[in-house]
Amino acid sequence: MSTSYTEKNAAPESQSLESQIKTLGDFIDGQKVGMLTTIRANSDDGYPVSRAMAVAARENNVDLIFHTHAESGKTQEIKEETSKVNVSLYKDSTGEWVSVSGDAELVTDREVVRKYYSVGLRAWLGDKGDGVHDGGPEDPRIGIIRVKSHTVTFAIQTSTQIGKIYGIAKGIVTGEVPQFQEIVELSSDRINKARALKV
């Protein structure tokens, strides 16, 4: 019986949760931009839509923070369609990737907005000149999307690029599934435990 790619590249069971969460965090922090997938608003077909979003921060190791316009299409989708979302990140040079499934919420509390505020938001929102909508931390247009992770799957390269190319070439000739990544699947139970870790 042949071994699937996922089985061949599965991370060893002996790998600690602390190690996995540190690897996950380093990857997310290094990539910064991911695709946030929601369910399209005002649609009868229920199809998803994805948008490129910069990760502003991580909370509790595994939960993601994004800046947003508080009255955008994506916030409407989160409030009116479903809070269930996916966030994916990909590193083209290595083929490494992360997929986060979780529940999103729109946060407009000024204390939270101030905590994660970036002056770069002024460029996206502009200044209306009314003393309120100025792109600053008190601008009511600025909100936070918090994605509380439910499950996470990610793949990290474990070989050099040359080793990866060799493994693929060998697989083409022999039919043997190559092994050049570690695929980690974090269940909701492990995600909950990860929130309490100091990594």
Task: For the structure shown, list the relevant keywords.
6-stranded antiparallel beta barrel; single chain; 7 helices; 30% helix; elongated
In short:
The chain is of the alpha+beta class and 199 residues long. The chain has helices spanning 5-8, 17-31, 73-80, 110-116, 121-125, 161-174, 188-194; strands spanning 33-39, 48-59, 63-69, 84-91, 96-107, 142-157, 181-186. The protein has a six-stranded antiparallel beta barrel, surrounded by four helices.
Task: Please write out the topology.
Layout: H1 5-8, H2 17-31, E1 33-39, E2 48-59, E3 63-69, H3 73-80, E4 84-91, E5 96-107, H4 110-116, H5 121-125, E6 142-157, H6 161-174, E7 181-186, H7 188-194
Antiparallel strand pairs: 1-2, 1-4, 2-3, 3-6, 4-5, 5-6, 6-7
Q: What can you tell me about this protein's structure?
A:
- With 199 residues, the protein is an alpha+beta fold.
- It is 30% helix and 34% strand.
- The chain contains seven helices and seven strands, in the order ααβββαββααβαβα.
- It has helices at 5-8, 17-31, 73-80, 110-116, 121-125, 161-174, 188-194, and strands at 33-39, 48-59, 63-69, 84-91, 96-107, 142-157, 181-186.
- A six-stranded antiparallel β-barrel has the order 1-2-3-6-5-4, surrounded by four helices.
- A hairpin with a 3-residue loop joins β2 (48-59) and β3 (63-69).
- The protein is elongated.
